[in-house]
Amino acid sequence: MTDLATKPPTILVIDDDAEVRYSLGRVLSSKKYQVIEAASGELGVAAVKKGPLPDLIFLDIRMSGMSGIEALQHIRSVNPKQLVVLMTAFGTAQTAIEAMKYGAFDYIMKPFDPAKVLTIAENALKAHADMRAVVNYKPTINSDDYKEGIVGSSPVMQDVFKVIGQVTASDVTVMITGESGTGKELVARSIWKHSHRAAKPFIAVNCAAIPDNLIESELFGHEKGSFTGAANQRLGKFELCDGGTIFLDEIGDMALATQTKILRVLQQGEIQRVGGTETIKVDVRILAATNKDLEEMVKAKTFREDLYYRLNVVRIRMPALRERVADVPQILDFCLQNLLKQKKTRVSKVSPEALAVLTRYRWPGNVRELENVVYRSAVIAQGDTILLKDLPAEVRETVGGIVPTVTTVDSAPPFETARVASAESAALATAQVVAESIASGEPALSIPHALDFLHRELSLQSEPILERLEREMIVRVLAATEGNLLKASERLGMTRATLRKRVDELGLKI
Ligand SMILES: Nc1ncnc2c1ncn2[C@@H]1O[C@H](COP(=O)(O)OP(=O)(O)OP(=O)(O)O)[C@@H](O)[C@H]1O
Fold it and tell me: Are 331 and 367 in contact (CB under 8 A)?
């Protein structure tokens, strides 16, 4: 494969039409690409098999003998990551769909517009260079270690895990609050799985999704003929869940009349079916969730105060994803690994530029939105890496244009430069998070966040992490103590002699 830093990229043109090969060759050579030609699908495949692999292939779909699609399959079996642009004279949507389905990077219609040919080649080769730059991608987690699907090691999530552990031993009612998509249901399931009720059912009821006139029947069941349409007796969720755990999601949307009945279950452990007179004992643990401000609702008398206190025995507040950006890379790897296992993608890596944008985005839809963005980007991505260009426009655009372009076809930087640029973009990203959090009156990044960030960034660099940290801290402490070695050594926790020695060894000037 061509070394982009030194040699011009090679492009293989496979077409049985000599005129097309000639004109395409001229256009591409004008940009100093090295063009190789093959006059049939068979010859093109042979050239790829023989090697060296070209950086890009322009491949005609309709050829006598082996078709372009057939050739593409052979080429993919030699090099699954090969970048291919399909060419077609039949510009129907169908051919475009076929081309992309078979994993082409793009397709182009004949007759060609030379400028378009060059743009496509440039974009393809940039994508190629970006993918090659991501050689050292190390997933942050192994999804097999997260059977319950709650990923995250940020301090705020550690607190959540602790409370989950504390409430599993008892039957205490738990109120889980937080914005939509933060993982409230996942937490409820985790509490249930770790509790002594794990062998009995877990039933989730979305109170907002069921109309007011049906919710009571849904929860408590009904007797035959109790209302129009009640042709038979029906058991409600509470009876079906006997011995288990019921998760009342969006409880803030529950009508006052139903709230009264929930209070009765909590106080007396009994229900009555709609239209029935019999009192039925049920043994159900209640977990509830809301993204509404229940305190405000209590004040406005739209939520019963007594029920509020009954539900709110223990509260777990799920932090918004923007409060735990350090978890984004882990959740991202978790989603990618799951998609890989389900064979929904071949993507297993993310470029540093894309990651920088993902950690800067505000995630109004929280983890659910991140999952969705990862899936969409993985579907769009060619090869095995999500690049900046693969992220949905709304994510790239909301974040703004500070992410530097790392490579261009004419002056592709060597790998080291690409990594430095990536580190810079990640640093800019974090600076932006801090600036935004200060501007919005939220606390700026905490020490654990800052350490997580440093860990990630310093891991990308060749200098040993501790040496870099030591150097930076010594410089800062010396500056703060105005070069006083004794005071600085006390702050750093080393003897004056050791500090003197380290200053010399690290080549620092006092
Ligand atoms: N920490 C996490 N790690 C991995 N996946 C997560 C995490 N938190 C949430 N998810 C995923 O995000 C999606 C939304 O989670 P969940 O339904 O639990 O959120 P929610 O807060 O209950 O949302 P809503 O308020 O809209 O009902 C789910 O697909 C879930 O698997």
Answer: yes
